[in-house]
Design goal:
Helix content: 25-40%
Shape: elongated
Strand order of the largest sheet: 5-4-1-6-10-7-11
Number of strands: 20
Largest sheet: 7 strands, mixed
Length: about 450
């Protein structure tokens, strides 16, 4: 049975005070609509994606989305109401039966888990809603704003989307609804509950992050949630990795030892041409822009292309900022942040030619500054912001930019800062390297990619 993901993008942005539909506003480098379409397009259980857009915006949306989403099959104008838009969806799907997920376009942070839960629940139920427990007390009031009842909060849920249905069930509910001259509903589960009371609507757990962008503050919250969001790299078999990397030219900066050396080793085993530079092996200092430009130019002359540039170099200084010497401050910022800027500048012309990949590294310290890690934490936060900004700036050139965020990893840099640590508590450099190459072999961009022991 085919599964359709239907993106309902009919909002006009009035409550946001905008002159464009709210789903066309940019958050974290992309329009809200692009984030939402991307979530469904990338999901393994979704077969087709349909976008229902605000009347008059079909052409602009078609241009925006282009051919980047393989499962996007239709872009249609919605109706003047939510119910009319759903009826147009039901008419557009040429099938007697299917699974259909209807999702608000302005919920761009919907997770793969939620989509999976909806699709799988439709194996056993005719209709599915997504909701989360209410953390607030809900009160009922009369027309004079006087409380008349306080329902038991343990039985209350806050509705979200997607809402999922068997196609035949939703069609049957709407067939009855249109016979009712007083019919009006703000969501489709409500139509089923009212007109097909014999059909159970299963509730699956949503997420606090699955917010609906409705008010101005929601834009700020969504942007921050995207900033802190992370993914895990789609793991690839050796055969898949070889197919993706064979013949590609990778430059690893910080490749003398640790994670960089492991990336070089595994990439070579997968058939890639790897040029590794490091301060202790080739004398390259990653904070030296001219040296980086010269090194990349040499690789391009010898191999005619550069498909990926990886920067793993870093320095970890632990201690109070007040007692850190000016030389140590300069080195920490230069290696941990300025180097990323310089590598990006030097790599851009080469990666624009090959539509290649820039891969940087951060640390879990980027989410919040910690005592005695002031320089390291702030530099790593800057690298994350740099990644997200460049992924937007370079999207038109087809360059992918991501940043790897490994858990504590057994590396010479960490041993130098903390000494020996209990076995089994750290990631190995090989594990991080494998995940890093999975990222390079993927289509991800603008993402913080977590690597965890579990």
């Amino acid at each position: 049975m085919k599964t359709y993901g239907v993106i309902l993008a009919g909002g006009v942005g009035a409550r946001l005070g905008l002159s464009v539909p709210k789903q066309m506003v940019k958050v974290a480098g992309k329009t809200i609509l692009e984030h939402t379409v991307g979530a469904f397009d990338a999901h393994l259980l979704i077969d087709d994606v349909i976008v229902m857009i605000t009347p008059g915006w079909t052409e602009q949306v078609a241009t925006l989305l282009g051919s980047r989403y393989a499962k996007l099959s239709l872009i249609l104008e919605g109706g003047t109401t939510r119910n009319e838009t759903t009826r147009r969806v039901l008419e557009a799907i040429d099938a007697d039966e299917a699974k259909i997920l209807l999702h608000d376009a302005v919920r761009p942070l919907v997770s793969g888990r939620i989509i999976s839960a909806c699709v799988k629940a439709l194996d056993r139920h005719e209709a599915v809603d997504v909701a989360i427990p209410s953390s607030d007390t809900i009160v009922l009031v009369d027309e004079d704003e006087v409380i008349t009842r306080i329902p038991d909060r343990s039985r209350l849920r806050r509705g979200q989307t997607p809402q999922g249905f068997k196609l035949s069930t939703l069609r049957a509910a709407y067939a009855k609804a249109i016979e009712d001259p007083y019919f009006h509903a703000t969501d489709d589960c409500g139509v089923v509950v009212r007109y097909l009371p014999e059909v159970e609507v299963k509730c699956v757990l949503g997420s606090e992050d699955n917010i609906k962008v409705t008010h101005p503050v929601d834009l700020t919250i969504a942007d921050k949630l995207f900033q802190l969001a992370s993914v895990q790299a789609p793991a690839k078999t050796l055969a898949e990795l070889t197919a993706a990397l064979a013949g590609k030219v990778l430059v690893v900066l910080g490749g003398s030892y640790g994670i960089g050396a492991e990336i070089a080793r595994i990439a070579r085993a997968a058939g890639a041409v790897v040029v590794a530079h490091g301060r202790s092996s080739t004398g390259l200092h990653v904070q030296d822009l001219q040296a980086i430009e010269d090194a990349l130019a040499d690789v391009a002359r010898e191999h005619s292309q550069i498909d990926a540039v990886v920067l793993t170099a870093g320095v970890l200084r632990v201690g109070p900022l007040a007692t850190t010497s000016p030389e140590e401050i300069e080195e920490s910022i230069a290696v941990n942040y300025t180097a990323a800027v310089n590598v990006a500048r030097a790599a851009y012309p080469h990666l624009a030619t090959t539509r290649g990949h820039l891969l940087l590294f951060t640390s879990s310290a980027y989410t919040r500054g910690r005592e005695n890690y002031a320089l390291y934490s702030s530099s790593k936060a800057a690298v994350v912001n740099l990644t997200q900004a460049l992924s937007e700036e370079w999207a038109g050139d087809g360059i992918k930019v991501n940043v790897v965020n490994p858990e504590r990893t057994e590396t010479p840099m960490r041993r130098g800062a903390f000494g020996a640590e209990p076995p089994g508590t750290l990631l190995s450099a090989e594990q991080v390297a494998e995940a890093s190459l999975d990222v390079i072999a993927s289509g991800l961009t603008g993402m913080v990619v977590d690597v965890r022991r579990d």
